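Model: You mentioned two targets. I'll fold them one after the other.
Researcher: Yes, keep them separate.
Model: Target one:
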Amino acid sequence: MLKSLYSGVSGLRCNQTKLDVISNNIANVSTSGFKAGRVTFQDLFSQTLSGAQAATEESGGIKAQQVGLGVSIGAIDTVMSNGSTQPTNRDLDFAISGKGFFVLSPDEEGETFTYTRDGAFYTDNEGNLVNGEGMHVLGFSDGDPTDDMDDIDTEGDLDDLELLNIPDQLDDDERLESLSVDSTGLITAVYGGETYYIGRIALAAFGNPEGLEKAGNNAYRETANSGEALVGMAGTGGFGPIQQSALEMSNVDLASEMTEMIITSRAYQANVNSIKTSDEILQELVNVSR
């Protein structure tokens, strides 16, 4: 069979995968905290018809004669550049202006963790800070509101993080009046005219954030390639500051994605044409015997 048939098929498969990734990027152009995917290609092994030869006294050097055997997917990356920040005027929306991820846990014990850049949070019926899927937002806290910020520890690892609880009231006379979060993630609430410190939102960072695995619902999982999570306080130690009443938008560049989609579509069509041409050649060979 003609090698061009197999090369054309490999081109179809790879460009189809690239179209899938591009389509997913475009679909998530308005998804908060979404990070675009990117596909890179690499050529397959080439068949060597004749090897290279060094120059001799009688003749010059001869290059190797090789025929490529198609293309394959080199990598599907996650582009971790920051998206633009959009003000929302909502107290429980947060954006990270730089390095870091919010830490989430599906259970109160905090035994499993996922990470996200989507800071659209809420409080549940018990006052726990959660995301839209009900995942608990973790941070540094002593478990109860305090009037002394020094009581809130800001050191430790994932196992030391706790649920962040913002009660609607401390007692019958002290109801929540206002809530603010500063650039370091410190949650300050006013009850009955008195100021209390709820806790501090923790951030996690990775040696290779592009090595994280997408877990769905705008979340990521740690992998062997991402490295272990390093926990810290926003605005310090290389972690980006937190901005309240704002969300990080998708980092998808719609103009670039549309351009890439056109290029990939044309490449797909070109591979189809190479397959058709190979088929026509085979047909001519079949007709020779008639």
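Model: Target two:
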Amino acid sequence: MPALHALVITHTHERIARTLMGLACQSRTPDSITVACDSDDPRIEPEIQKAADELKRPITLLLRKRSEVACRSQNRNNVVRALISTLEKQGKTDYRSDHLFFIDGDCIPNPYACDSHDHALQTHDLSLGWAVRLTPEQTDALSDEQILLGRTEEHLDQEQIQSSSRAHLQTRKRIMLRKFGMTKPHKPGILSGNFGVRMNAFLEVNGFDETFTGWGMEDDDLARRLYMIGAKPKSVMNRAIVIHQYHPTEEPPNWKDSPNAHRLSEPCEARCVSGIENPASQHEPRVIEINPS
């Protein structure tokens, strides 16, 4: 039976505790949790230690000094590299058949996220989840108790609640149209803060392309390269939902304004050059196995 690995991506100690709280109350417990932080801020390790103590389970933490230019692609590859290193140290060699669940460290998963992704990946290569953005007021009103009880959607308005169903129907339509070659190469797209992928498919395309730096499009690029190798997607947007906690971001008002947007119209190979193998230059990452006290 393939294992399910939760991979948490962050660049700060802020908000990460609530992401891990959400992972603690899943209907299907992840077999491992790995956190990659695009920073060596000394405040991150105590937060992860506290979570390991509360969850009563080990968490692998990867830290690296922040580069001048943010590279989310590299941080997402780093978390997989850290996971593979941990599995190999444990003597596991059949991990290529395992399932990966990526979630951003500013998001809180609903109780069915892990199960929904894991179930979809039994038959498909890629599982597509949904994210609902909280307002500042909703973020402040959400309590730790509600997260631990799986009641993260209590503060959502009707529009937010219905957004996942609409996104699910639209994505299912795009999946059908894709069979007839009637969609863009990267559609249906991936929300990098909430998606699942089979490890073997992720490794076949060499993971995220680390030449994507700054904000945006690295997830769309991953999607199109996965589709180039015949990866089959499945929408779980009506069940695997994460709640995005409010905070200021670098996201432009229009995605077309992203400096990486034009790259989606350029030809590419399915397997990127600078990825899981042959990573781009970076400060040396440090992997720490954090066990509950």
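Researcher: Noted. Anything on target two?
Model: The two ends are 30 Å apart (CA to CA).
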